[in-house]
Amino acid sequence: MVRKPLVSIVSAGLSKFGRLEGIYGREIFAEAVKEAFERCPNLNPAKDIEALFVGHMGESYEHQGHTGPTLADWAGLLPKPAMRLESACASSGAALRTGIFAVLSGMHDIVMVGGVEKMTHRTTSEVTEFLAMASDFPFEQWHGITFPGLYALMATAHMHKYGTTEEQMALVAVKNHHNGALNPKAHMQKEVTLEKAMSSRVIAWPLKLYDCSLITDGASCLILTRPDLAKKFTDTPVHIIGSGQASDAIGIYEREELTTLKAGRLAGQEAYKMADVKPKDLDIAEVHDCFTIAEIIAYEDLGLCKPGKGGSLVEEGSTTLDGEIPVNTSGGLKSKGHPVGATGTAQAYEIYLQLTEQAERRQVSGAEIALSHNVGGSGATAAVHIYRRG
Amino acid sequence: MSETHPFTIESFYKFVSERKLMAAKCSKCGTLLLPPRPVCTKCLSTDFKWVELKGEGKLLSYTVIHVSPVQFQSMVPYTVGIVKLEDGPHLPGMIRDVEPEKIRVGMDLKVDFETSIPTQWPLWPRYFFRPL
Fold this sequence. Notes:
- The complex is a heterodimer.
- By secondary structure, chain A is α/β, with parallel strands linked by helices.
- Chain A contains 14 helices and eleven strands.
- Chain A has helices at 25-38, 45-48, 67-74, 91-104, 124-132, 147-162, 166-180, 194-198, 230-233, 262-275, 292-301, 310-315, 332-335, 343-355; strands at 7-14, 51-55, 82-85, 110-117, 202-205, 207-208, 218-225, 238-247, 284-286, 369-376, 381-389.
- By secondary structure, chain B is mainly β.
- Chain B has two domains: 2-52, no CATH class; 56-131, CATH 2.40.50.
- Helices cover 7% and strands 36% of the residues of chain B.
- Chain B has one helix spanning 9-17, and strands spanning 22-26, 32-33, 48-52, 56-65, 78-85, 90-95, 108-113, 127-131.
- In chain B, the strands form two sheets. Chain B has a five-stranded antiparallel sheet with strand order 6-5-4-7-8, with no helix packed on it.
- The interface between A and B is medium-sized, with 36 and 33 residues.
């Protein structure tokens, strides 16, 4: 049953998530990199790290494209090759997968993957417009359908087909805020009550403010090595044992079902098969809760429960910190925050902490096997990774 | 006449300006493509005909948008939905001329067309849905 790892994570870094005033994206990334380097004193970064793959969604936020070399420069990695991957909110999930390709190909032994987004200096209206660019322009954006609107369409369909309730969605927020309150790097470190979540203002009915993830500044990174080199750098590596990615129609209206993300299902199936792991083997999962309905759909797509039962799963408390399968121990996108380009590797960062017993007050004791699920846009991209304690 | 229009999204909106909802029909396997594409998603054929759709269908899902991008701010709150057309394809769009509280999944809707042409790129006239 023990699969050979694809790559090993020997270190990881995360900036503070939140409204980081007066600091640029590249500087936020440098903060995450600093932590990763400090965690790994046996690594000589400028010499050992051979390439950088970074997720970054939008030039519009900082009027800055060409993020690969910019971030390599601020990370002290020039003149190493650096490349930006854009897959909307799954940009750093895609960067992680690309880093795995780079190591598995034999081209590189040690690479850094990560991501960054600086968002909070823009108005909500501007951010709404920038995020919508990850959806179909001619038939969705052009007709006034926003990003929350797309997930609201999924929520309405889920409510109609399965009887999922607004309360069940709000319970996802309550759970994730509880976890986020235990995470010193989370954007919103405070609990929220069901009443408060339910009475928050409507963004795109049936989704309310507390159903939506946060507009956040932040960066994340991981250092990946060939598995046989990992022990040179750390006694406690985390192995990546499965990787899956899939694509779907950019317009949600073209999909067979509105109540599931096919790309998420397929990416999950590929990762489970590669890792030889079943949903019941997972000790923890970080899933893409860009909206509360997205976490409910993720439970179903990843086989944590049957289709239509995601609302009940959260209601029964199965996904809380002390539940059968704790989901989003970090606080998720909902409470930790969602700097879109940073999210995929920020999920991996939380798993790295959990599988090395460094998650402090939110530690799930003895967690061995974990999954991360990173969705791009309204589900046209999904990247799923499975990890094992080294 | 319509055969001279290439099978593009630009052509789709040109037809909308003529108050027509048109889709590309694959001459080989009969699949209706909306949006039109240069290659059939089912059989990879590149041979199409334009066909006019009736534009009637049932509402699959909807949402009421309260926070919008700048250009739609004067319209909030507004309702958008995805309609399963009787002809087959699904099409998203705004739902007008009905109170949001009266909108239900499964209700019958019909396509209609705006008369004004937007002044912003890409200058496409908009279609929308209203109760049948």
